[in-house]
Design a protein that fits this description.
Length: 246
């Protein structure tokens, strides 16, 4: 089986190197103070490593999504079993589709990318599921990228790193915006955890911009995962006060 691809030309993935890079990623999570909770491998599902897409985890609840790619809709079973120890579970149902990679959490607002993977019904269902907890859900248009978090991610309290060619920064609220280096269009994906970010080592120019903002970086090689349209947010679910599911 091969992973889903939308905006990239398919390249061979070095499986052994990808496994080593994932181990490096887990080590970075531990350095950032996380406890790792692993879910069983699903070798028959090539995108299952991207656990972020099958759930949206908030302090109050975990929303199990319904991925936009039909081939990914069985990926959530083991993740749900793990999350049920920590959160009450609610679900997106048919005909809604929602990928967790489209959901950007900023304060009490969840910005959701209107992408090929997340439809209007899925966004409305998410709004209904989280409104009682005080969250506002706002849709944001995307251009030429897979997920909202391909274009922009949190790198500090109300601070976003992003590529404004792929998402209009004005749709993401009143935030401090750091623009990626134009030569590194995929550099907007960073994982903010415990006061610093886990960040791909490939984006050296944007990394320098982040250092100039006094942002702590833990660099990892994610080149093989990137061939499958994966980023550093994709491979974990961060549970505040609990650790990371990987």
């Amino acid at each position: 089986m091969e992973c889903e691809l939308t905006h990239l030309v398919r390249e061979p993935i070095d499986y052994a190197r990808a496994v080593a890079q994932h181990a490096e990623y887990e080590a970075a999570l531990v350095r950032r103070g996380c406890e790792i909770v692993r879910v069983p491998a699903a070798h028959e599902m090539p995108d299952a490593v991207f656990v972020e897409d099958v759930a949206v985890v908030l302090d109050e609840v975990a929303v199990m999504t319904r991925p936009g790619a039909a081939s990914r809709r069985d990926e959530g079973r083991e993740v749900e079993a793990a999350l049920a120890w920590y959160r009450n579970i609610v679900r997106i149902s048919e005909p809604g589709t929602l990928d967790g990679g489209d959901v950007l959490h900023v304060g009490k607002t969840l910005f959701v990318g209107r992408s090929e993977r997340s439809n209007a019904d899925g966004i409305e269902q998410l709004r209904a599921l989280v409104s009682d907890f005080g969250y506002d859900v706002k849709a944001a248009a995307l251009h030429d990228c897979l997920h909202l978090k391909s274009a922009a991610t949190t790198v500090g309290e109300h601070v976003l790193l992003g590529n404004s060619a792929w998402v209009d920064r004005r749709e993401l609220g009143d935030v401090d915006w750091i623009e990626v280096d134009a030569r590194e269009p995929f550099a907007g994906n960073a994982l903010w955890v415990n006061g610093g970010i886990i960040y791909p080592s490939a984006f050296v120019r944007t990394a320098d911009l982040l250092r100039k903002r006094d942002i702590t970086l833990d660099l990892v090689d994610a080149s093989e995962l990137a061939k499958a349209e994966g980023g550093v947010t994709c491979c974990s679910l961060i549970l505040a006060g609990q650790g990371a599911s990987s």
